[in-house]
């Protein structure tokens, strides 16, 4: 990054120690971490030189970033044992309450043993605390003695996302996390809350394997470094206080069985969340243990066989900004769709009546970017949403946005869902080629995304207010005229009259 000074591999710092660009960061430890006073190098008494940007390199010199960093880009992808008889120890990053009799409950920080090669998303494990065995979600644990097992290690998250979490209201000055650098994927960054901003510090290594932020002080491990900066700033903007808290991730399916068709008797409806053109949405419990959202579809809305085919594709699409589909009930009508539960409901209601009313321009742009990320994933998989709008975006903890109902428009019966006046077709969000000729492509979703951006920036206002569907379909000439009079290049701007 431009604000971080660097040297070539042949240069040494002011203490005479050479930094090695090929020194592996070796994030996975092979022995228990012990703490000792940080090693000092010549130049400790020299004044610190702080960069003025939000991305900081402390000290009079810095080294080329290391290569060979070993980390999991997906915090939910702890590596399994590599041999059938190998035992490997793991640490629980989150608490988990058993959902079935075959599951294993455990507390955060509990040590677990996994035996043999297990490539699925649910592992058979044994708790060293309770001595019980059962299935555990793979993305709830990390290999013991690895940096992924530390509360402060967030893995490969974007810089902007780190800032969003650190600036949450519950966090105080000094709240911090360590992440993979956004600009250099083979190095790490320390991100620290400082008032209403976040400071980012590059973590580098010397060829002897030691870590440093300031070249005056080196540490044998990241744990040693964190412990040091918890007691003194030593050049940082704030003393490190506590790791940035985060929510437990979704599991891959409801249980290790990953049953696609579940029994209706396992669902309990607890609270109605809303209703729409094609059914209702309820908060509920699966198996008496797991909070879920249950979408009920009105009888006759769609052909069951068509829905099952579409839902099987939908379940395979997984992304942080797509609503996770857990299971369905299709053996009788009404059809039930069981998904993860999002705390704040639809984006439309969030913008009109929730905290979204007070969203800043930066928070609004963040929501737009999250939705873009989810839609880009759908595009990569050649999947068309067909009904992208604020009402079909759901909001969770930390203002996480997730695209919902992708693909459902494809299987709704044609006589219910078409562009005729008076029907339930969302023409104000629909691209002209789709509204007029029923031609849907990825580009149709792009048009709808533009309308969705308008909804976000206007706090949930109705697009084309006061206009009927028929009027909206014939605005092409007016749009061209408006763009001509708003031409930014003076000489290209249309004349009056």
Strand content: 15-25%
What's the number of extended β-strand segments? 20
Q: What structural class should be given to the helix and strand makeup?
A: alpha+beta
Helix segment tally: 10
Distance between the termini: 51 Å
Overall pLDDT score: 82
Radius of gyration, whole Å: 27 Å
List segments where confidence is low: pLDDT < 50 over at least 5 consecutive residues: 1-16, 20-53, 57-75, 413-423
Pfam family, one: SH2
Subcellular location: Endomembrane system
GO biological process, one term: cell development
EC number: 2.7.10.2
Tell me what you see in this structure.
The protein has 497 residues and is of the alpha+beta class. Helices cover 19% and strands 20% of the residues. The chain contains ten helices and 20 strands. It has helices at 159-166, 222-229, 304-316, 347-353, 361-380, 408-411, 432-437, 442-457, 469-472, 476-485; strands spanning 39-40, 55-56, 87-92, 111-115, 122-127, 133-137, 141-143, 153-155, 176-180, 188-194, 197-205, 211-212, 217-218, 267-276, 279-286, 290-297, 325-329, 336-339, 393-395, 401-403. Strands 2, 8, 9, 10, 11 and 12 form a six-stranded mixed β-sheet that branches. A five-stranded antiparallel β-sheet has the order 6-5-4-3-7, with no helix packed on it. Strand 10 and strand 11 (197-205) form a beta hairpin. Helix 5 (361-380) packs antiparallel against helix 8 (442-457). The two termini are 51 Å apart. It is an enzyme of class 2 (transferase). This is Tyrosine-protein kinase. It catalyses: L-tyrosyl-[protein] + ATP = O-phospho-L-tyrosyl-[protein] + ADP + H(+). Residues 1-84 are annotated as: Disordered. Keywords: ATP-binding, Kinase, Membrane, Nucleotide-binding, SH2 domain, SH3 domain, Transferase, Tyrosine-protein kinase.
């Amino acid at each position: 990054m431009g604000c971080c000074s660097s040297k070539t591999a042949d240069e040494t710092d002011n203490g005479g120690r050479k930094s090695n660009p090929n020194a592996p960061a070796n994030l996975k430890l092979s022995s228990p971490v012990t703490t000792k006073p940080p090693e000092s190098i010549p130049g400790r008494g020299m004044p610190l030189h702080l960069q003025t940007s939000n991305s900081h390199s402390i000290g009079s010199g810095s080294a080329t970033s290391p290569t060979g960093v070993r980390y999991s880009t997906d915090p939910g992808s702890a590596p399994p044992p590599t041999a059938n008889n190998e035992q490997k120890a793991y640490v629980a990053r989150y608490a988990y309450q058993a959902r079935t009799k075959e599951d294993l409950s455990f507390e955060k920080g509990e040590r677990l043993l996994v035996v043999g090669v297990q490539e699925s998303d649910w592992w058979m494990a044994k708790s060293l605390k309770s001595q019980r065995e059962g299935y555990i979600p793979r993305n709830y644990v990390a290999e013991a003695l690895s940096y992924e097992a530390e509360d402060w290690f967030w893995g490969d998250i974007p810089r902007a996302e780190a800032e969003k979490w650190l600036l949450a209201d519950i966090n105080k000055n000094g709240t911090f996390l360590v992440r993979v650098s956004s600009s250099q994927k083979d190095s790490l960054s320390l991100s620290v809350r400082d008032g209403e901003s976040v400071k980012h510090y590059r973590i580098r290594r010397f060829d002897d394997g030691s870590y440093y932020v300031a070249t005056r002080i080196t540490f044998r491990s990241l744990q040693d470094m964190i412990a040091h900066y918890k007691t003194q700033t030593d050049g940082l903007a704030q003393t490190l206080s506590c790791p940035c808290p985060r929510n437990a991730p979704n599991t891959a399916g409801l249980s290790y069985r990953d049953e696609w068709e579940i029994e209706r008797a396992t669902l309990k409806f607890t609270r109605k969340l809303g209703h729409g053109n094609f059914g209702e949405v309820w908060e509920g419990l699966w198996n008496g243990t797991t909070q879920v959202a249950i979408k009920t579809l009105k009888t006759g809305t769609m052909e069951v066989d068509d829905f099952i085919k579409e839902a099987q594709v939908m379940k395979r699409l997984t992304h942080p900004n797509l609503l996770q589909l857990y299971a369905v009930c299709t053996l009788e009508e009404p059809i039930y769709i069981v998904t993860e539960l999002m705390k704040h409901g639809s984006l439309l209601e969030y913008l009109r009546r929730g905290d979204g009313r007070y969203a800043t321009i930066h928070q609004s742009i963040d929501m737009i970017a999250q939705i873009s990320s989810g839609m880009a994933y759908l595009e990569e998989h050649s999947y068309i949403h067909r009904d992208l709008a604020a009402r079909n975006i759901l909001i969770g903890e930390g203002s996480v946005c997730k695209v919902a109902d992708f693909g459902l428009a494809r299987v709704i019966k044609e006589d219910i869902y078409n562009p005729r006046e008076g029907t339930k077709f969302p023409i104000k969000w629909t691209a002209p080629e789709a509204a007029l000729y029923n031609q849907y492509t990825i580009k149709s979703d792009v048009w709808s995304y533009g309308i969705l951006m308008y909804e976000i920036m206007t706090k949930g206002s109705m697009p084309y207010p006061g206009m009927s569907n028929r009027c909206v379909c014939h605005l092409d000439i007016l749009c061209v005229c408006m763009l001509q009079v708003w031409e930014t290049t003076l000489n290209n701007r249309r004349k009056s009259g």
